[in-house]
Design goal:
The complex is a heterodimer.
Chain A lengths: L25 H15 L10 H14 L7 E10 L3 E12 L10 E6 L18 E3 L2 E3 L7 H16 L8 E6 L7 H6 L12 E12 L5 E10 L1 E10 L3 E2 L8 H14 L8 H13 L3 H11 L4 H8 L11 E9 L5 E2 L2 E10 L5 H12 L4 E5 L13 H14 L5 E6 L5 H6 L4 E10 L12 E3 H19 L2
Parallel strand pairs in A: 3-6, 3-7, 7-16, 8-15
Antiparallel strand pairs in A: 1-2, 2-6, 4-5, 5-17, 7-8, 9-13, 9-14, 10-12, 11-13
Chain B lengths: L9 H4 L18 H15 L10 H15 L6 E7 L5 E9 L9 E6 L18 E3 L2 E3 L7 H16 L8 E6 L7 H7 L3 H4 L3 E12 L5 E10 L1 E10 L3 E2 L8 H14 L8 H14 L3 H11 L4 H8 L11 E9 L5 E2 L2 E10 L5 H12 L3 E5 L15 H15 L5 E6 L5 H6 L4 E10 L12 E3 H19 L1
Parallel strand pairs in B: 3-6, 3-7, 7-16, 8-15
Antiparallel strand pairs in B: 1-2, 2-6, 4-5, 5-17, 7-8, 9-13, 9-14, 10-12, 11-13
The chains are: A alpha+beta, B alpha+beta.
């Protein structure tokens, strides 16, 4: 799931827009275009069994570029869950070994090959036949995230051809079910860790990136360093029920409604971590109005809950100041003319990094404060951790971004969603979302939506971006 | 749906409870032979899951029809009437005519319904569609609403036929197949099929009955002669929705929860009519000098005494009898765990006091809910207000005689207004007065489980009901 820069970062003042940095050669552009078109035209939606062939295609491209077959692994695996569907999918692992003794543990490059479903009847064009129109490439996966798969792969191929010799191993892990069950990432952070060489940190192409606003002014690039923990809870109320002509004093639906009203009014304790502090420090520089004042007050005094509440209430910053829980689904009763015996509500929480989902359950129980409302967890997700801001990664990302886009502001970012990065962060391997593609915001925010697209130049810039990143981080 | 006659424990709290006999332990007067026959048919009836959309109604209709046929009713007087109830629910009604060889009066109609409310295995202690006898009770969905009445009316007729009884008027048995959902069967029965059903009056087995409190003291036998209008409304909220990681200030589920909080506290204007006054006069007598009894007397003396009416309405026994009531029965909202809801709907079931227009109730709900909420009546069932049936001495006397036999002189018989809407409403609306006079009974409130969990009926109540109907038929058609 793609985490694009929040629209808030738009308010950055205009400086010189456009791409002025290094460019691919014509031959490299042609190869990039061919690979991208092949990938977009392969519908890697869950249930369609196409991920293995996409993994094999990429493996063949690596082999053709001279990477040894022994270091290229297509690993088939099964993904499935009751709610997200089933598939026989695959992961691709490619290890580019360091020349000589590695200077440090490997760098992991991450991405996912699967895409969200897209229906031809919903789109204005065929989502699985890439086309070029109005300066864009259109198709499912063009920004989530076959752009990143292409960027990493082409960058490695180009660097290899240019004779680049990494000083540490570079290991690629492309998974096949990030949009659904995330089994590939779990395996990556578990049973495949040996194959991945126990990397020091991960660079995820499914995060980061940046944009220009409609006037062409730079809106900023973000580097994803933390993500909230996704967890679902259920409020359940049982009742004896009975005949609806004789309403009882207690009623499962009313008890649930009362609990939901309490949840609606409740706000969790505001919190700040290194990532969000750096984010708000960056944001407040250009945010002049009352929102900027609130950011400045909160940064000066993290106990200023009122300032945090003000920030949280803004459309652009919602979800960034604390844990949030919201009711997403409701169910109750069994017949129009019977008092409900059961009512439940699903509560979706995005938990601030580092907070245990079990502690949130306890807090929900305290908020509701009604023993007839039973609160249960729907998953066993563990607390996601923020990745520490590393000067080497932050520096490399900033340099790569600003080489291609001079003057472009760069922010760290905490994502409110969930991605393949989570199991690695939980396993102690920090992960940074550092893709280099850019879009026009908010016009091009179409991940998971209809008519997904990427600016043509952005696709090619992203290859250069990954070349710059890898040279910087694995070349010294 | 069963018009349950619920009665007090309030009085039971007071003074020295008499050492009354547990009515469940009194032997039934039905002979062992007819107990066995009744039990066999009742077991089969309970084990046919006649929930809407399951397509089981023809089996149930055949089960009852087979009893009549075996007893001598010719096939030409047994009519299977297939029809569609809810869209796609192909159900069936059964109409049986027991002809009088020398009819001297207009026919009488005996009403029941064969369908039951949904019951889920996981909610119940035992399988709701497996018949079970335990601790002096029969358990299963439909044991009290109302396969008991279907079986009692059928077996009473079969027994009378076997004994050579000849009615002096035609008796028409009408069993519908969608009373719990749409009432299409009763609508057709009262109109399109009127040539088969036309009668002077109807006796409905889906209501009436006696009850005892937990100390086994008789609480009364109510004959339902009026009923509230049944109307379901949908309260729906809409929202643009969005990604759940970024909650909006407004939320369809929370907006709906706000309305439900208001609805929980809301009370409609208290009202009385001839039937409910008769009922509360009897109830006030039962309640004696208790605070509830005093409130009833105050309210009877001054129908504008809203505070007294509120006390009465708050009594679990009398709930629903002082005014229109609306209650939330179902909820639905959202489409994915990780998306903000785009809509949420509460089903609100109303039982509207006779004489009040359902449109007025809709307007009141709309006012309560506010402009953000859409309030619409359930298009599947548009309630039609119906007149009360005039009290008839012959029917009341027949019930009194039966009640005296099974429950003794302390069981008072009196009129009630049903809070449920039964098939009777469709016939009342078309000019056939209907009286709910079933003879089964239970312990209040423990046995009031119609539509709820672990539905049951005392074993003796089932068996005595066969004899009860035998007496009613003899008295009114003999």
């Amino acid at each position: 799931m793609r985490h694009l820069l929040c629209a808030a970062a738009l308010v950055v003042l205009a400086s010189t827009a456009g791409a002025a940095g290094p460019q691919l050669t014509l031959a490299q552009r042609t190869a990039t275009h061919a690979m991208f078109e092949h990938l977009v035209n392969t519908p890697t939606v869950i249930g369609r069994h196409n991920v293995p062939q996409m993994a094999q295609y990429l493996a063949d491209q690596f082999k053709a570029a001279g990477f040894p077959a022994a270091d290229i692994h297509v690993i088939p695996y099964h993904t499935g869950s009751a709610t997200q569907g089933q598939d026989d999918t695959a992961a691709l692992i490619v290890r580019w070994r360091a020349a000589g003794t590695p200077a440090a543990k490997p760098i992991l490059l991450m991405g996912h090959m699967d895409v969200v479903e897209a229906k031809a009847e919903d789109w204005s064009v065929d989502p699985f036949k890439m086309i070029e129109k109005d300066g864009y490439y259109y198709g499912r996966g063009t920004i989530d995230m076959k752009d990143g798969i292409t960027g990493i792969t082409q960058a490695m191929i180009n660097l290899k051809a240019a004779g680049f010799r990494p000083k540490r191993d570079i290991v690629v892990l492309f998974t096949g079910d990030e949009e659904t069950n995330g089994i590939g990432a779990k395996n990556g952070a578990g049973e495949w860790l040996n194959l991945l060489g126990h990397p020091e940190y991960g660079l995820n192409a499914d995060g980061g990136g940046g944009g220009f606003d409609v006037s062409g002014a730079p809106a900023g690039f973000s580097m994803q360093t933390a993500e909230k923990t996704y967890a679902d809870y259920t409020f359940t109320v049982h009742n004896r029920g009975g005949h609806s002509s004789k309403p009882r004093k207690d009623n499962a639906i009313y008890s649930l409604a009362h609990a939901l009203d309490k949840l609606e009014a409740y706000r969790f304790q505001p919190m700040m971590n290194e990532t969000t502090r750096a984010y708000f420090e960056g944001r407040q520089k250009t945010e002049k109005g009352p929102l900027g004042d609130a950011m400045r007050r909160w940064l000066a005094n993290p106990k200023d809950g009122e300032a945090a509440d003000f920030i949280e209430a803004s459309d652009s910053e919602v979800g960034l100041t604390r844990t949030r829980c919201v009711a997403t689904r409701l169910f109750g009763g069994h017949a129009n003319n019977a008092l409900p015996q059961l009512a439940w509500a699903r509560i979706n929480c995005r938990i601030f990094p580092g907070i245990d989902p079990n502690a949130v359950k306890t807090e929900l129980e305290r908020i509701v404060n009604d023993p007839t409302v039973v609160i249960t967890r729907e998953d066993d997700n563990v607390a996601s951790l923020a990745s520490p801001l590393r000067p080497d990664v932050t520096g490399a990302y900033t340099r790569a971004v600003q080489t291609l886009h001079p003057g472009m502001p760069v922010f760290p970012e905490m994502s409110t969603g969930a991605s393949d990065a989570r199991p690695f962060r939980v396993a102690g391997i920090p992960v940074y979302g550092v893709n280099g593609a850019w879009v026009q915001v908010p016009t091009d925010f179409r991940a998971h939506g209809r008519d997904e697209r990427i600016p043509i130049q952005s696709l090619y810039d992203n290859v250069v971006h990954w070349q710059l990143m890898l040279t910087d981080l694995a070349g010294k | 749906m069963k018009a349950v006659l619920a009665f007090v424990l309030a009085a039971a709290v007071s003074a020295s409870a008499l050492a009354a006999t547990d009515p469940r332990t009194v032997p039934t007067q039905l002979s062992p032979e007819w107990q066995a026959k009744t039990r066999a048919v009742f077991k089969q009836a309970i084990e046919i899951p006649t929930v809407h959309n399951r397509g089981e109604m023809p089996k149930m209709a055949k089960l009852l029809a087979d009893q009549f046929r075996t007893a001598g009713i010719p096939d030409s007087d047994i009519h299977f009437m297939p029809y569609e109830a809810l869209p796609g629910d192909n159900t069936e009604a059964l109409i049986v005519r027991w002809r009088s060889p020398h009819a001297t009066k207009k026919p009488m109609l005996i009403l029941g319904h064969m369908d039951v409310v949904e019951a889920k295995r996981e909610d119940w202690k035992y399988d709701p569609f497996v018949f079970r006898e335990e601790g002096g009770y029969f358990y299963g969905r439909g044991t009290s609403d109302m396969k008991n009445g279907d079986v009692a009316t059928t077996m009473a007729a079969v027994k009378l036929m076997s004994e050579g009884f000849k009615p002096d008027r035609d008796i028409i048995f009408f069993y519908s197949g969608d009373e719990e959902t749409r009432g299409v069967g009763a609508t057709l029965g009262a109109s399109k099929w009127r040539n088969l059903t036309d009668a002077e009056f109807g006796l409905n087995a889906d209501g009436g009955g006696a009850s005892y409190d937990r100390n086994f003291r008789p609480l009364g036998f109510g004959i339902s002669m009026a009923e509230k209008t049944f109307q379901t409304y949908f309260l729906t909220t809409h929202n643009p929705g969005g990604h759940s990681s970024r909650p909006r200030p407004d939320n369809a589920i929370y907006d709906l929860a706000d309305v439900l909080e208001k609805l929980r506290a809301y009370r409609f204007q208290p009202m009385q009519n001839e039937i409910t006054r008769g009922y509360f006069e009897e109830r006030a007598r039962q309640e004696g000098n208790s605070p509830l009894g005093q409130a009833m007397r105050r309210w009877l003396a001054n129908p504008n005494d809203g505070a007294a009416a509120d006390i009465v309405e708050a009594s679990p026994v009398d709930v629903g009898l002082t005014r229109t009531r609306c209650v939330a029965t179902m909820l639905k909202g959202g489409h994915a765990d990780n998306a903000l809801p785009q809509s949420a709907t509460a089903t609100v079931n109303c039982r509207i006091f006779p004489g009040v227009d359902p449109k007025t109730v809709q307007a009141q709900l709309q006012k309560l809910a506010g402009p953000k909420v859409e309030v619409t009546p359930d298009p599947e069932f548009i309630g039609v207000p119906t007149p009360a049936s005039p009290p008839r001495a012959d029917i009341i006397n027949a019930v009194k005689a039966a009640s005296l036999r099974f429950h003794g002189p302390d069981m008072h018989v009196f009129p009630v207004m049903s809070t449920g809407a039964s098939d009777g409403s469709f016939f009342r609306a078309q000019g056939i007065p209907v009286y709910d006079v079933d003879g089964s009974w239970g312990i209040s409130p423990d046995d009031e489980r119609a539509h709820g969990l672990d539905e049951r009926i005392p074993v003796r109540a089932m068996y005595d009901d066969v004899l009860h109907w035998e007496m009613i038929i003899k008295a009114l058609a003999g």
